[in-house]
C-alpha cells in the first residue's frame, strides 16, 4: 500500500483509482524537497525580475548607458533613420565603452517578422555575445519589439536595454515586458515576455520625429488618459497641437510622458505576465486595431489604428448607453483636435466581427472589450453576446458619419 504524509494537492492517478487505493499527492519542489514517494511533482517557477525606467535627457551626456552596459559585451541595434539623425549622439554615449558593436537593421512594420529577429540573432552570434551579453535597442517600437524577442531567444535569454526614440516607444512599446513580430499576416502573433534590464528615456530624441509619428503616439497617451487618468486626458485635449508643433519640447511634454509611463507601469504591475487575468485596461484601443492594421497590410501606423479603435470602442459604449453623449463628444473631439483618425473605410462589420473573434481567442475565451464609461474611467464588455451585430453596425456607421462630416 502506497501512502504519504507530505502536503500537496491530490493528483489524479487512474491506476490508483482502479486499484481503489488513495491517489498519491502532488509533491512540491518549492518550498520543500519531496520525499522519495511521489506521483507528480509541482514545480514553482518564480524567478522574476524588475526593471527601471529612467528619464535621462540628454542621454549622450548622462553616462547612464555606459553605466548599465559596464564591462559587458553588447550589440546595439538601430534603424537607418535613427542612425542618421541620432547616430553621433549614441556613439558619444558609448564613447567610454569598448565592447559594443552596432547593427543597423532596416526594420519597418511591413517587414517586422522572424526574419529580422533571425538577423539580430545571427549578428549576436557573429559578435560573440555571451550569456552575460546584452542587446540594446535604439529605435522605435518596431526596433524594440524585434530586439526584445531576439534577446529572449539568444542563449535562451540574454539581457536587453531599451532606448526608445519614438513617442510610442517612450510611453508604451519600450515600457512593457513584451516583444512580438507579425506572423503569416497576423499582427504580433509570435512574441515573448522578456523584461528589459533598463529603459532609458531621452525625450529630446523626439524632436526629430516627424509630426505624423508624434500624433500617432498621442493615441497611446489618450488610451491611458481616457481609460484611467482624467488629468492626462485634459492635458492632451488642451495641448496636443502644441506638443506636436514643439516636437514634444513643450512644457506639458514631461508631464504627459510621466503620467503616461506611470499609468502604463501601474497597470502592468498588477498582471505583468498576463497570467492573472485577461481583463486588461491597456487593451483599450487594441481590439479592432490589430485586424485593421493587418487588413491594410500594415501601411497604417499602429497609433492611427489605435485611435480608430478608441473612437469605435467609445461609440459602442455610447450606443449601449454606457457613456453619455457629453463624454463621447469630449473623447471623439479630443482625438480629432489632435489630428488623429477616428475611422477608416476598411472598418466594416466583417472586420469588426473577425477582430472580436480573434480577441476572444487571445483573451482566454472572453471578449473583454475595454470601453469608456466616462473620461478617466473604463469598463469591460466581457462576453461576445454583450455586443450584438446591430450595435456594432450602428457604432461603425455613426463614427464613419462623424469622420465624413469632419472632412
Ligand atoms: N511590445 C509592446 O508592448 C508594444 C506596445 C505598443 C506598440 N508596439 C509596437 O510598436 C510599433 C510602433 O512603434 P513606433 O510608433 O515607434 O513605430 P516605428 O518603430 O515604426 O517608428 C516610426 C518611424 O519613426 C522613425 N523614427 C524613430 N525614431 C525617430 C527619431 N527619433 N527621429 C526621427 N525618426 C524616427 C522610424 O524610422 C520609423 O519610420 C508597432 O509595431 C507596435 O505593434 C509594441
Ligand atoms: Zn499599442
Mean pLDDT: 91
Largest sheet: 6 strands, parallel
Q: What is the beta-strand fraction?
A: 5-15%
Low-confidence stretches: 1-19
Instruction: Determine Rg (CA atoms, Å).
Output: 24 Å
Number of helices: 15
What structural class results from the helix and strand content?
alpha/beta
End-to-end span in angstroms?
81 Å
Widest beta sheet: strand line-up = 3-10-7-6-4-5
Q: What spatial form do the alpha-carbon principal axes imply?
A: globular
Overall number of strands: 12
Bound molecule kinds, no repeats: nicotinamide-adenine-dinucleotide, zinc ion
Helix proportion of residues, in percent? 40-55%
> What string gives the helices and strands in order?
HEEEHHEHEHEHEHEEEHHHHHHHEEH
Layout of SSEs?
Elements: H1 14-18, E1 26-28, E2 40-42, E3 52-55, H2 59-62, H3 64-69, E4 74-78, H4 80-93, E5 100-104, H5 114-126, E6 134-139, H6 141-153, E7 159-164, H7 167-173, E8 178-183, E9 186-193, E10 198-201, H8 211-228, H9 230-245, H10 253-270, H11 289-295, H12 302-319, H13 325-337, H14 349-362, E11 369-374, E12 377-381, H15 389-405
Helix pairs in contact: 5-6, 6-7, 7-8, 8-9, 8-10, 8-12, 9-10, 9-13, 11-12, 11-14, 12-13, 12-15
Bound molecules: nicotinamide-adenine-dinucleotide (NAD) and zinc ion.
